[in-house]
């Protein structure tokens, strides 16, 4: 017998759950539109060369690859199928992949259509992505991202604008206070330049990015395993330990980095981003400079950020940054970009756990017409259509069964009212309207009934 379980790391959503998700998406979308972003959708599958090499060594391992159509093993002999030739096998049998995020498809789209798009081009995108990650709390293999990105401008004013946008989204959703952690990849590159050895920025950031998962001691071990010297690991720890308020942190780091270095450039950019907020009060968001913030994806070049909710053990619920070279891989230069992504699955789980979804979300049907006699079905249908034309969302139970069963159906669907009418009620033109929450029942003529339900 075939199992009815979903694939590991995926979930079904139905009924009220789906209405809640749509509510969440709707609130985020409303803010995107207010900030001037327009919608975009891209295919679930991309050519594999579009995806590979953009996310770093670990990201590439988490891609869901799609086999070529037809006889994809054609041309491979027994020697070619040996385990040590996995890379060769992949290249031979895979030509597509499920999108890992929405940023690379956005970059591909902009590179293809940049001559036709208004620049800067602001788009939002709310679609699922897939990662072959190990499922855990707040981490799924299929999940939605809600992205807003801008292409075609190097202005750091755009980087700043995402901060009040997050504040407004979280305010609309009544979420707990948030911490907007911010850093700059040039600062991390500058830290790397200040070390005694020659290490790749990818190795440095891939290790630091695991800080929340494995702690500082785990990061130290990771760095040692990647070939960093003990002295350099100690120096990296000193950078990560810088504390104080935002101005103090940046001042202390500036004293530790050589003047004119790439790290100093990152500090200047970070200070500029924060300076734009001087006349932009935030209601529920604390901006915090965090030099341990790394963002493991390779394509970031400047500002990077992650957002967490105070007192909530869920990890980041939004993240993003600046990527000024992303379209170059598609043969188009000088199309810098910056963006932010809300983690819809994590936000949904937080709101569900805290009971933050408004009461009545999913209550779109107002009235159930109780079926007392199937001979009256033509009359019932006429009544239902009259109500619908007057703006009353109405259902009719399709068969005559016990009234209790019909009422139970309404209860499960969250329908607040039931209309009870047999031949006498239709002859008199008066219909019994029952409030299923209070139990109160009263007879109304049709105009009064419609007024009661639409007022």
Key features?
single chain, 455 residues, alpha+beta, BirA Bifunctional Protein, domain 2, Rossmann fold, eight-stranded mixed β-sheet, 17 helices, 16 strands, 19% strand
Provide a descriptive summary of the structure in words.
With about 450 residues, the protein is an alpha+beta fold. The protein has 2 domains: about 15-45 and about 105-355, BirA Bifunctional Protein, domain 2 (2-Layer Sandwich), CATH 3.30.930; about 365-455, Anticodon-binding domain (Rossmann fold). About 40% of the residues lie in helices and about 20% in strands. It has 17 helices and 16 strands. The chain has an 8-stranded mixed β-sheet with strand order 1-5-6-11-10-9-7-8. Strands 13-12-14-15-16 form a 5-stranded mixed β-sheet. The chain has a 3-stranded antiparallel β-sheet with strand order 2-4-3. Helix 1 (about 15-35) runs antiparallel to helix 6 and helix 7 runs antiparallel to helix 12 (about 260-275). The longest helix has 19 residues, at about 15-35. The two termini are about 50 Å apart. The model has no long low-confidence stretch (mean pLDDT about 90).
């Amino acid at each position: 017998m075939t199992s009815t379980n979903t694939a590991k790391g995926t979930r079904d959503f139905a009924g009220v759950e789906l209405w809640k998700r749509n509510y969440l998406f709707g609130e985020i979308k409303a803010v995107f539109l207010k900030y001037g972003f327009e919608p975009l959708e891209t295919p679930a599958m991309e050519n594999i060369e579009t995806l590979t090499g953009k996310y770093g060594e670990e990201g590439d391992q988490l891609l869901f690859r799609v086999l070529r159509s037809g006889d994809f093993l054609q041309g491979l002999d027994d020697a070619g199928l040996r385990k040590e030739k996995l890379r060769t096998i992949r290249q031979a049998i895979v030509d597509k992949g499920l999108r890992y995020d929405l940023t690379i498809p956005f970059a591909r789209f902009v590179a293809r259509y940049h001559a036709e798009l208004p620049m800067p081009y602001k788009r939002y995108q709310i679609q699922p992505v897939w990662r072959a990650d190990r499922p855990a709390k707040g981490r799924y293999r299929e999940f939605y991202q809600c992205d807003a990105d801008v292409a075609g401008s190097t202005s750091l004013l755009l980087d700043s604008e995402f901060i009040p946008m997050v504040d407004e989204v979280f305010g609309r959703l009544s979420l707990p206070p948030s911490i907007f952690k911010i850093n700059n990849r040039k600062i991390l590159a500058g830290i790397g330049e200040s070390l005694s050895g020659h290490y790749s920025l990818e190795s440095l950031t891939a290790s630091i990015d695991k800080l929340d998962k494995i702690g500082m001691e785990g990061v130290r071990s990771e760095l040692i395993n990647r070939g960093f010297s003990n002295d350099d690991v100690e120096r990296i720890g000193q950078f990560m330990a810088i504390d104080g308020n935002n101005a103090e942190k940046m001042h202390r780091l500036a004293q530790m980095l050589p003047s004119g270095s790439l790290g100093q450039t990152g500090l200047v950019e970070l200070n500029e981003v924060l300076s734009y907020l001087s006349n932009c009060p935030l209601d529920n968001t604390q901006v915090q400079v965090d030099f341990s913030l790394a963002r493991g994806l390779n394509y970031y070049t400047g500002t990077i950020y992650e957002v967490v909710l105070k007192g909530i053990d869920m990890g980041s619920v939004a993240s993003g940054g600046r990527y000024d070279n992303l379209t170059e891989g598609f043969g188009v230069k000088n199309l810098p970009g910056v963006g932010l992504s809300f983690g819809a699955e994590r936000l949904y789980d937080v709101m569900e756990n805290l009971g933050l979804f408004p009461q009545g979300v999913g209550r779109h049907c107002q009235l159930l017409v109780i079926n007392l006699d199937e001979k009256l079905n033509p009359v019932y249908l006429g009544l239902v259509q009259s109500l619908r034309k007057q703006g009353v969302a109405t259902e009719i139970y399709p068969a005559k069964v016990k009234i209790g069963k019909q009422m139970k159906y309404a209860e499960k669907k969250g329908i607040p009212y039931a209309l009870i009418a047999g031949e006498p009620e239709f002859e008199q033109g008066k219909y019994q309207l029952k409030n299923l929450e209070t139990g109160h029942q009263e007879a109304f003529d049709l105009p009064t009934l419609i007024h009661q339900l639409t007022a």
